[in-house]
């Protein structure tokens, strides 16, 4: 794996952001709008004493975490789709570029996007609502790390599906993550869910992250158990998804379906 190839792909994607309003909106505008809507709702609930806990801290923390997860997933999926939309996919893979280098570059692009989003929403949440996510110190870092990994796994999974079924499945790059949101316990604990679907929530690494975040906010204590559960689930899903991606790519090459992606 050559770093200069990865660097070239990263620079190529960053150039696209200089004059692309939709791409910049995806990083700055939509996360800010979501923060404003939920932030003002949180203030209203707290002002009217509709809850006995710090609503602003709980909801804004969940919103920021959810934005990190969704940005992580979309960064991987859309980095792949950029080449499909520009009919450049085959050009990329007739070069000596390796699949591992391509995937690494998409992950790093996602990391850059996430850092930008985190800075923007973190500053705004402090200025507008007095919410400082740094007050929890390093307790949230391991959970954020697990959240980003799960986002990359989801991005890799949706990319594999798009590879197999073509651009007709590209809606998954933007909508798939919302299918798991109700079961990830983002804004409420797992105990709120019907018992019949709680098993699904516990099968998701993101559930343990959001439950762990609430535990840190409520008690100031870091739950190693939730962290290890999330990490273990991420490792299992990463191995399975990586296998799925390579198996799908081999099948697509065998059937000559790569040509259809550039049509």
- Terminal Cα span: 29 Å
Q: Biggest β-sheet, characterized? A: none
Unreliable stretches: none
State the secondary-structure class: mainly alpha
Per DSSP E runs of 2 or more residues, the count of β-strands stands at: 0
Helix content: over 70%
How many domains make up the coordinates? 1
Q: Quick one: overall form?
A: globular
Q: β content, as a range?
A: under 5%
Q: What Rg is obtained from the alpha carbons, in whole angstroms? A: 19 Å
Overall pLDDT score:
76
Total of helices: 11
Strand/helix succession: HHHHHHHHHHH
Topology:
Layout lengths: L2 H15 L3 H27 L7 H31 L3 H5 L5 H31 L11 H25 L6 H9 L17 H5 L2 H15 L4 H32 L2 H4 L2
Helix pairs in contact: 1-5, 2-3, 2-5, 3-5, 3-6, 3-9, 6-7, 6-9, 6-10, 9-10
Describe the protein in words.
With 263 residues, the protein is an all-alpha fold. It has one domain. Helices cover 76% and strands 0% of the residues. The chain has eleven helices and no strands. It has helices spanning 3-17, 21-47, 55-85, 89-93, 99-129, 141-165, 172-180, 198-202, 205-219, 224-255, 258-261. Helix 3 packs antiparallel against helix 5, helix 3 runs antiparallel to helix 9 (205-219) and helix 6 packs across helix 7. The protein is globular and about 55 Å long. The mean pLDDT is 76.
């Amino acid at each position: 794996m050559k770093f200069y190839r990865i660097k070239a792909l990263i620079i190529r994607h960053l150039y696209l952001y200089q004059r692309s309003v939709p791409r910049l909106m995806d990083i700055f505008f939509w996360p800010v709008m979501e923060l404003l809507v939920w932030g003002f709702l949180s203030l209203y609930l707290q002002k009217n004493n509709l809850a006995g806990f710090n609503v602003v801290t709980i909801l804004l923390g969940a919103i920021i975490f959810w934005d990190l997860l969704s940005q992580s997933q979309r960064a991987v999926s859309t980095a792949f789709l950029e080449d499909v939309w520009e009919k450049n996919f085959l050009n990329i893979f007739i070069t000596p570029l390796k699949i591992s280098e391509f995937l690494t570059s998409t992950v790093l692009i996602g990391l850059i996007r996430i850092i930008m989003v985190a800075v923007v929403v973190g500053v705004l949440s402090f200025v507008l609502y007095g919410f400082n996510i740094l007050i929890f110190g390093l307790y949230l870092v391991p959970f954020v790390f697990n959240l980003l990994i799960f986002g990359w796994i989801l991005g890799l999974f949706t990319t594999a599906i798009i590879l197999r079924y073509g651009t007709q499945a590209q809606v998954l790059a933007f909508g798939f993550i919302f299918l798991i949101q109700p079961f990830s316990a983002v804004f409420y604990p797992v105990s709120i869910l019907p018992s019949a679907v709680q098993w699904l929530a516990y099968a998701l690494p993101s559930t343990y992250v959001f439950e762990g975040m609430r535990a840190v906010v409520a008690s100031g204590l870091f739950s190693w158990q939730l962290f290890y559960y999330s990490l273990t689930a991420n490792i299992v899903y990463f191995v399975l998804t990586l296998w799925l991606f390579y198996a799908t790519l081999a099948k697509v090459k065998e059937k000559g379906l790569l040509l259809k992606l550039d049509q």
